[in-house]
Amino acid sequence: MRLVQDPAEQTTAATDIILASVAFGGIFLLHFCLENKSELWRINIWSAAIGLIGLAAALGAAAHGLDLLPTIQNRIWLVLNMALALAVSLFVVGVVYDLWGYEASIRTLPLMLIAGLGFYLATLFYPGIFFLFVIYEALALSFAFCAYLFLAFTGEPGTGFMASGVMISIIAAGLQTRKSMVFMLVWKFDHNGIYHLVQTIGLLFLIAGLLEMTIFD
């Protein structure tokens, strides 16, 4: 098994590893700092969402960084895209919990999982409508940003960090669509590498917000 020779792909794989490391490290930190067991459901939902982001990043590191057979490459992308679809769904469930509480999040969980899998399967069978999943993600992030902005104005601990993290994630998603974006900073970065770096910053804000919400709630 060989590494790819494209410098931009190598950098993309490296930034994927950074994103995955932050995601898995954040999950450990959230559970390590958990003292109030009533917050376990929130932490489990967010840990699952962040863990799926970490899984997608780890798979992305393999897809971008290794010279793989096309069949293996395709299978990796299938699992990666499903992980992202479910991460978005669980992200929404976490926001619903923070807005309306445990019962609302329990009712929302199966609906969002079905929606995430539905959008994933639709893009799988009809690749030309992938934009529908992009719209699904954009709506989820917009809902989350508005929710945490509202909660921040009410003085809820950690929600300022959460709103900032979501906004940075929206910016990261926008940057990823700029496929012509390339720059050199010691290494060569393309739109995917830039996306991973910005998304890592957004994830750090989200983890900081969750830690503050867990400790002070």
Briefly summarize what is shown.
This protein has 217 residues and is mainly alpha-helical.
Structure description:
With 217 residues, the chain is mostly helical. The chain has one domain (2-216): Rhopdopsin 7-helix transmembrane proteins, CATH 1.20.1070. Helices cover 80% and strands 5% of the residues. The protein has 7 helices and 4 strands; from the N terminus they run βααβααααββα. The strands form 2 sheets. It has a two-stranded antiparallel ribbon. A two-stranded antiparallel ribbon has the order 3-4. Strand 3 and strand 4 (187-189) form a beta hairpin. Helix 1 (7-32) runs antiparallel to helix 2 and helix 6 (159-176) runs antiparallel to helix 7 (191-216). The model has no long low-confidence stretch (mean pLDDT 90).
- Largest beta sheet: strand ordering: 1-2
Q: Unreliable runs, pLDDT <50, ≥5 residues? A: none
What distance separates the N and C termini? 48 Å
Give the strand content: under 5%
Produce the secondary structure layout:
Elements: E1 2-3, H1 7-32, H2 40-65, E2 66-67, H3 70-100, H4 102-125, H5 131-153, H6 159-176, E3 183-185, E4 187-189, H7 191-216
Antiparallel strand pairs: 1-2, 3-4
Helix pairs in contact: 1-2, 1-7, 2-3, 3-4, 3-5, 5-6, 6-7
